[in-house]
Design a protein that fits this description.
This protein has 379 residues and is mostly helical. The protein has a single domain, classed as Hypothetical protein af1432, CATH 1.10.3210.10. Helices cover 62% and strands 0% of the residues. It is built from 20 helices and no strands. Helix 3 packs across helix 10 and helix 12 packs across helix 13. The longest helix has 30 residues. It starts with 33 loop residues before the first helix and ends with a helix. The structure holds magnesium ion (MG).
Length: 379
């Protein structure tokens, strides 16, 4: 593959041409870089399509206008790509990591993950971030020559946001940076922050639409208040949801601009010249300025106490508890309740004593509505 596509990148970006490669050796593509190929494999995966029917905050059947895991993922990728281009780091790699970052989520959002983790407490636990890696490395079942998607090392490593040292040691080369206490690439760091920018802002819009939070409450937050005043000064007659939408637009722009400027400043101050310098640095290089960081934390805290802890949103937690723990115990007591093709495909693992992990993978892969249907069928 010609390296022309990446010729305008900064020297501290990650380059496809210098990838540490794929687990299973493949010949390179003629028209695409290796990171572009990764992105495209993610889009064609089954796990990616299922994001459409997985909860972000609001359960899919609560309304067609709310974010789902899929639309959240697309928003993260959009924000991250724009920022990557401005920072002259690898846009394709950033997009690939963004598109795969939530693949490991269970049905019913974080509530689902917590229940599954309890079900699996004696069998290695469950964590959505590790599950994303499991999906792309092992569980996707579509290619003739290898299991999983056989993605590049940089995409896989970029997906692993957090990891305990014990677990990292078991993961080998992919977990090594946690053992060595190194930072992730700029592309991975950027995706993490853009994930947060995306969900904080779309949750303001969805929360207001669902009447769980109100503009009057948000006015107490400087980040919202200041940007809303700019909107109202420019458009004094504006009303309703347009005020919120314009304000959120300005907040995203403010956050992304600050992130790019402050990260460029960090790169300069730390004397970062290569991607190795990024990893060796003792702190994150992609970060907000102190003022914006403070305002952003206030917004996060607000959403946590007023939206995610809202009684109506928490109702979903109870529903997830029942459905997921019921399904888990049903499959444990009779593993033949799993679809026969899935059972056959995993027979070796089941016979090797990993029945619980197979069941966990099956439940984690479910969409909200499928989990609901399966629960109705079995109970
Ligand atoms: Mg996310």
């Amino acid at each position: 593959m010609s390296n022309d596509f990446e010729k305008n990148l900064a020297p501290y970006a990650l380059f496809s041409a210098k990838t540490l490669g794929r687990e299973h050796i493949e010949s390179s593509a003629k028209l695409r870089t290796e990171f572009q190929r990764d992105r495209e494999r993610i889009i064609h995966s089954t796990a990616f399509r299922r994001l459409e029917y997985k909860t972000q905050v609001f359960v899919n059947h609560e309304g067609d206008m709310y974010r789902t895991r899929l639309t959240h993922t697309i928003e993260v990728a959009q924000i991250a790509r724009a920022a990557a281009r401005a920072l002259r780091i690898n846009e394709d790699l950033t997009e690939a990591i963004s598109l795969a970052h939530d693949l490991g989520h269970t049905p019913f959002g974080h509530a689902g993950q917590d229940v599954l983790n309890i079900c699996m407490k004696d069998f290695g636990g469950f964590e959505h971030n590790i599950q994303s890696l499991r999906i792309i490395d092992k569980l996707e079942n579509r290619y003739a020559s290898f299991p999983g998607l056989n993605l590049c090392f940089e995409t896989r490593e970029g997906l692993l946001k957090k990891c305990s040292i014990t677990r990292a040691k078991k993961l080998g080369s992919i977990g090594k940076r946690f053992v060595d206490k190194k930072q992730s690439s700029l592309e991975a760091q950027l995706t993490n922050v853009c994930d947060e920018i995306a969900y904080n802002n779309h949750d303001i819009q969805d929360g207001i639409r669902a009447k769980k939070i109100f503009v009057e409450q948000l006015e107490d937050l400087p980040l919202f208040f200041n940007q809303m005043n700019i909107v109202l000064k420019k458009f004094p007659k504006l009303s309703g949801s347009k005020i919120v939408n314009e304000t959120v637009r300005l907040i995203i722009n403010l956050l992304v601009t600050d992130l790019i400027n402050n990260s460029n400043k960090n790169i300069k101050n730390k004397g970062i010249l290569t991607s190795e310098d990024v990893k060796d640095s003792n702190s994150l290089t992609i970060s907000f300025s102190d003022d914006i960081k403070k305002m952003n934390i206030e917004l996060k805290r607000f959403l946590y106490s007023n939206l995610y802890q809202h009684p109506d949103v928490k109702k979903m937690t109870d529903q997830a508890n029942t459905i997921i723990s019921d399904l888990f115990s049903a499959y444990i007591s009779d593993i033949k309740l799993l679809p026969s093709d899935f059972y056959e495909y995993n027979l070796e693992k089941i016979n090797a004593g990993h029945k619980e992990r197979v069941i966990c993978d099956y439940i984690a892969g479910m969409t909200d509505r499928f989990a609901q249907q399966e629960h109705n069928r079995l109970f």
